């Protein structure tokens, strides 16, 4: 397909935090944005607070609850029908983190909920949109300038899912580790709640889901040449005051941002995090597949993004192939 269209960038979870703050810079770079959320009404209300009326005209809304695979299928169909030919970027941003649960919450399909939202919902979404991404117009109109653009998938990763970094080794409740993936292999339904089939640890369930996100990027990069599809992940920094931490104890919510600002130096504002996501997803500077981009754990002004070394738990070819195949099976793609 060669005709020229406005470029569309899809992003999940724009009602708060990093996702909300990614929309404005995407528009600034000339992209039309498809905001995918559980509630269009809330998404519109929140974006109205930070975008001008002119900018709002560049946003389309699609409702999708990532915890329900049927909803992901319906929403994906709507996206393909309306924007399929011009979809160039998919940013998987939405997530839940519920570290205080005593028992696992379950998704519509019966999966542990943080794995369902953070990994399975996105895994199915990008698989359903993939063919369209690959065959969409090759030139897009960005602010009146025609640009060749290789389709991209950008997924939010995190330091706590990468055992190669100090933050990934924190033993509370346990580092991210999919083990032998027995939980996935056995169908991941109750009483199973963890990928490795072991005892439920809610904080680890989140880390494991982000590990799956980062593995997905690596597998996509292996399976598609860079000239066809760029797949990358990033750690935007510690955005310590987003709603992601809404289910942590109030004292943690009070102290964590201060700790990150004044002790570790890892703190990043929501605005800066959003700008970083938009850059990684769109800029020529990040034209490289299979990279996990980071600005480090101690923020320094003028520091440039670098390719973060990843742990064996992310890049081990046997684990990642197995995680990919089992995820396909669990979301109903095989
Ligand atoms: N904050 C950090 O320090 C940090 C660090 C590294 C990586 N990250 C990553 O950055 C991303 C954004 O996190 P954040 O800190 O900005 O969190 P946030 O403010 O809580 O935003 C999460 C977004 O996900 C949406 N969401 C939750 N459940 C959903 C579902 N079932 N279906 C569709 N959307 C759903 C939320 O929408 P609702 O309003 O409907 O709940 C919200 O828009 C996540 O992937 C996170 O892992 C964050």
Radius of gyration of CA atoms, rounded to a whole number: 19 Å
- Proportion of beta-strand residues: 5-15%
Number of helices: 11
Q: Please give the CATH architecture.
A: 3-Layer(aba) Sandwich
The largest sheet, given as strand count, sense and whether it forms a barrel, is:
8 strands, mixed
Portion of residues in helices? 40-55%
Q: Keywords, please?
A:
binds NADP nicotinamide-adenine-dinucleotide phosphate, 14% strand, alpha/beta, Rossmann fold, 334 residues, 8-stranded mixed beta sheet, 3-stranded mixed beta sheet, 11 helices
Write the layout of secondary structure elements.
Blueprint: E1 5-6, E2 8-12, H1 17-28, E3 32-37, H2 40-50, H3 53-56, E4 59-63, H4 69-83, E5 87-92, H5 113-135, E6 139-142, E7 145-148, E8 152-156, H6 182-185, H7 202-223, E9 230-235, H8 250-264, H9 270-282, E10 292-294, E11 306-307, H10 312-315, H11 317-330
Parallel strand pairs: 1-6, 2-3, 2-5, 3-4, 5-8, 8-9, 9-10
Antiparallel strand pairs: 6-7, 10-11
NADP nicotinamide-adenine-dinucleotide phosphate (NAP) binds next to helix 1.
Describe this structure as you would to a colleague.
There is one protein chain. The model has no long low-confidence stretch (mean pLDDT 95). Helices cover 41% and strands 14% of the residues. The strands form two sheets. It has an eight-stranded mixed β-sheet with strand order 4-3-2-5-8-9-10-11, with helices on both faces. It has one domain: NAD(P)-binding Rossmann-like Domain (Rossmann fold, 3-Layer(aba) Sandwich), CATH 3.40.50. The chain has eleven helices and eleven strands. With 334 residues, it is an alpha/beta fold. It has helices spanning 17-28, 40-50, 53-56, 69-83, 113-135, 182-185, 202-223, 250-264, 270-282, 312-315, 317-330; strands at residues 5-6, 8-12, 32-37, 59-63, 87-92, 139-142, 145-148, 152-156, 230-235, 292-294, 306-307. The structure holds NADP nicotinamide-adenine-dinucleotide phosphate. Residues 12-19, 37-38, 65-67, 93-96, 117, 156, 158, 210, 235-236, 238-240, 242-244 line the site of NADP nicotinamide-adenine-dinucleotide phosphate (NAP). NADP nicotinamide-adenine-dinucleotide phosphate binds next to helix 1.
């Amino acid at each position: 397909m060669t005709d020229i269209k406005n470029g569309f960038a899809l992003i999940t979870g724009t009602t708060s935090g990093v996702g909300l703050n990614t929309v404005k810079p995407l528009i600034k770079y000339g992209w039309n944005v498809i905001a995918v959320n559980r509630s269009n009404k809330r998404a519109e209300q929140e974006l109205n607070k930070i975008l001008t009326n002119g900018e709002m005209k560049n946003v389309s809304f699609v409702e999708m609850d990532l915890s329900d695979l049927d909803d992901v299928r319906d929403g994906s169909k709507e996206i393909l029908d309306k924007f399929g030919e011009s979809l160039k970027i998919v940013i998987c941003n939405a997530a839940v983190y519920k570290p205080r649960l005593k028992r696992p919450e379950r998704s519509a399909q019966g999966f542990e909920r943080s794995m369902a939202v953070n990994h399975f919902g996105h895994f199915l979404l990008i698989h359903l949109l993939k063919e369209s991404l690959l065959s969409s117009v090759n030139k897009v109109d960005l602010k009146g300038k025609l640009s060749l653009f290789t389709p991209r998938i950008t997924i939010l990763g995190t330091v706590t899912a990468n055992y190669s970094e100090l933050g990934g080794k924190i033993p509370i409740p346990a580092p991210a580790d999919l083990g032998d993936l027995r939980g996935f292999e056995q169908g991941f339904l109750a009483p199973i709640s963890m990928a490795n089939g072991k005892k439920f640890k809610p904080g680890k369930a989140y880390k494991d889901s982000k590990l799956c996100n980062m593995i997905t990027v690596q597998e996509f990069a292996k399976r598609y040449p860079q000239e066809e599809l760029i797949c990358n992940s990033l750690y935007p920094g510690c955005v310590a005051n987003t709603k992601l931490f809404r289910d942590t104890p109030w004292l943690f919510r009070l102290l964590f941002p201060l700790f990150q600002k004044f002790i570790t130096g890892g703190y990043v504002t929501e605005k800066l995090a959003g700008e970083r996501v938009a850059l990684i997803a769109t800029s020529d500077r990040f034209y490289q597949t299979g990279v996990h981009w980071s600005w480090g754990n101690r923020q320094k002004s003028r520091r440039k993004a670098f390719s973060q070394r990843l742990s064996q738990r992310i890049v081990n070819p046997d684990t990642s192939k197995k995680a990919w195949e089992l995820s396909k099976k669990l979301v109903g793609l095989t």
